[in-house]
Write a structure and sequence with these properties.
Two copies of one chain form a homodimer. Chain A has 334 residues and is of the alpha+beta class. Chain A has one domain: Ribosomal Protein S5, domain 2 (2-Layer Sandwich). Chain A is built from ten helices and 14 strands. In chain A, the strands form three sheets. In chain A, strands 1, 4, 5, 6, 7, 8, 9 and 14 form an eight-stranded mixed sheet that branches. In chain A, strand 11 and strand 12 form a beta hairpin. Chains A, B: One of its GO terms (molecular function) is diphosphomevalonate decarboxylase activity. Chains A, B: Belongs to the diphosphomevalonate decarboxylase family. Chains A, B: Its EC number is 4.1.1.33. Chains A, B: It comes from Lacticaseibacillus paracasei (Lactobacillus paracasei). Chains A, B: Residues 172-304 form the Mvd1 C-terminal domain.
């Protein structure tokens, strides 16, 4: 029997950068994210006794199954099974978006594989499981505004939706500066920051100090403060990275150009706030009434490399029909 | 009687960013610089009993004399005079270079005004005096490779040439990303970093730890290590700035483009190292044999906005003829 699940990508407003425990994937700081409606991964999992190894198909192409297999080992351990699985994933992220998909990918895999293995995990347990695949996947188990409590062991490090969700019509614009696979993976990048940046300890302390203010700002729909805290967390993460040995930045020239445009719009009174993850692309936080104004300002420089999305829902089990619809949607893009 | 002096700009390899004492202009860290031959300020000072106020001409145009006057007050105090002065300065820095000139300006003013006031200061005393006008002017009293000891009071904070000078044919390329006056002055920028960057203390500790290795690297002509330390100090300064509240960077998109080109050249085996001060322009440290190769690589992007210079000499008293030659040179540039 095949189990299907869908999980959405998320963008951290208060960032996660650096692990306190690499084996357990415990982060050095808590983080707060928004789950995005328009970018998601659908994953089908079939535990099949006739298989001699795990198999992994992504958007119709056979992939090296090592990372998926390692994750499935954990699911098999929890489910007390030893069967290999066929995993079939569809990334519904426009290739031009240059968005990393590991958050939605491992959240969907955790959701589908645990159910397929006969487990009936709580959302918290799912979040802990997804964490072992990719840190940010922890947060993609939930929709809306989500906090990942850093915790101090496997049991205490998990995400949950914020108790008071913002009622603002939040929107995220994704400006694709480069759709290329990034030169330094987040895993390696984090490790190098921890090992060589003299600013790492101060980054941890500063970022952690933004958590409580952000919870309050989101609960109070204080857009200016949400935006201010978002930019502080992002830029301090990139500053901690820039201070590495040797110095390094994920920023490309166009990253700065997009940041400049955001600042220019803000000087005109438009609420727009930039945040960059471990890559050159710029995500712009705003609210619905300002989306068109921002698109108009950005298009002369970035053309159609800008996507806009509202907040998305929880990861969930879906039907074969929904999965097939995604397959058709991706095929028609191609 | 008019006294004429010339002083050259300098570029810090180990940066100065942030004051420990604003009144005395004591820096938070020591710094190491190279004095540049091709960019300098000539300044003429005449203490004239017929004047009712200080007057300041720069490149033929009357200027607000406030900063010059404040500096002259200190000279008058040391010289026990009360006469006002006519100050006439010529900045021999191509306008396209986008180079700040406060280092050469206050070093030249200190040299000319102290002599004109009847003082006969030692180079160390001159360096301490220049410091009161602009921190980096402290270093422009000396040629070659210079260290500014941060010190702990007015007497102990001064520059001097490194005891063992590099014998490498060092060259600095100045890539002008923008010739506009910078939006945030160094003085304000430093103060904001000290006040709001959570990375400031770590910046001070990290930068100070690069001083002794740089002295050794320069003495041993270890170009790779000189370059590595140069980039670490620069990028960590800019990272400390980026972490400010609100986040800020002096970098423009083309700043990153120039840094990328330097990294590309280095990957090809060319010794080239980037350093940026409190502005968007990129200075590239290399040695004489590689200047043409680098110019060839940079020109497709930056055209003729690239200047190259070797290391320059001490600040010194010059003749009226030398001063007049500079005036002609500037006039002919148009």
């Amino acid at each position: 029997m095949t189990t299907y699940a869908r999980a959405h990508t998320n963008i951290a407003l208060i960032k996660y950068w650096g692990k306190a425990n690499r084996k357990l994937m415990l982060p050095a700081t808590s983080s707060i994210s928004l789950t995005l409606n328009d970018f998601y991964t659908d994953t089908a999992v079939t535990f099949d006794p006739s298989l001699n190894d795990d198999r992994f198909m992504l958007n119709g192409e056979e992939q090296n199954p090592v990372a998926v297999s390692r994750f499935l080992d954990r699911v098999r351990h929890l489910g007390k099974i030893s069967t290999y699985a066929q995993v079939t994933s569809l990334n519904h992220v426009p290739t031009a978006a240059g968005l990393a998909s590991s958050a939605s990918a491992f959240a969907a895999l955790a959701t589908a594989a645990s159910r397929a293995a006969g487990l009936n995990l709580s959302p918290t347990e799912l979040s802990r499981l997804a964490r072992r695949g990719s840190g940010s996947a922890t947060r993609s188990i939930f929709g809306g505004a989500v906090i990942w409590h850093r915790g101090h062991d496997d049991a205490s490090s998990f995400a949950e939706p914020l108790a008071i969700q913002p009622s603002l019509p939040l929107r995220m614009l994704v400006v694709t500066v480069s759709a290329e696979k990034k030169a330094v993976s987040s895993r390696k990048g984090m490790a190098n920051t921890v090992a060589t940046s003299p600013y790492y300890d101060a980054w941890v302390a500063s970022n952690e100090s933004l958590i409580e203010p952000m919870i309050t700002a989101l609960a109070e729909d204080d857009l200016a403060l949400i935006g201010k805290l978002t930019e502080l967390s992002s830029m301090r993460m990139h500053a901690a990275i820039m201070a590495e040995e040797p110095p390094f930045t994920y920023f490309l020239p166009e990253t700065l150009r997009a940041w400049q445009l955001v600042q220019e719009q803000r000087a005109l009174g438009i609420p727009a706030f930039a945040t960059m993850d471990a890559g050159p692309n710029v995500k712009i936080l705003t609210t619905e009434p300002y989306v068109d104004i921002l698109l108009t300002a950005l298009r002369p420089v970035f053309g159609d490399r800008i996507l806009s999305t509202r907040l998305g829902p929880d990861a969930s089990i879906i039907t074969k029909e929904q999965f097939d619809d995604t397959k058709s949607a991706i095929a028609s893009q191609g």
